[in-house]
Amino acid sequence: MSGELDLSPPEVPEPTFFESLLRYGLFLGAIFQLVCILAVIIPFNKTHEQEEIAEKSDVKGGDQNKKPKGPVPQPRQKPKKESKKKR
């Protein structure tokens, strides 16, 4: 009944190159996702240099940088077909 119990750990084969590559790729993907989530959560403020450049362009540009406020008409590609009158 008590016999010999095999308490040694089971044999685990060595991971292949593809399995290792897949594992590290998943780790990199998870890190990339965390960075993206943190970029959304943590607001990014302009640096001092970017603010100075923006102020200089506003002073020099004046009205040149303003966009027209009206909607831009888009040309139609196909004219609408007229519907036939019912008899």
Automatic annotation (TrEMBL):
GO terms for cellular component: membrane. Residues 51-87 are annotated as: Disordered. It comes from the Eukaryota. It is found in: Membrane. Keywords: Membrane, Transmembrane, Transmembrane helix. Its main location: membrane. Residues 51-66 have a biased composition (Basic and acidic residues). InterPro entries: UPF0239. It is a single-pass membrane protein. Residues 77-87 have a biased composition (Basic residues). The chain crosses the membrane at residues 20-42. PANTHER family: MANNOSIDASE, BETA A, LYSOSOMAL-LIKE, MANBAL PROTEIN, PROTEIN MANBAL. Belongs to the UPF0239 family. This is MANBAL. It comes from Coilia grayii. The lineage of its organism: Eukaryota, Metazoa, Chordata, Craniata, Vertebrata.
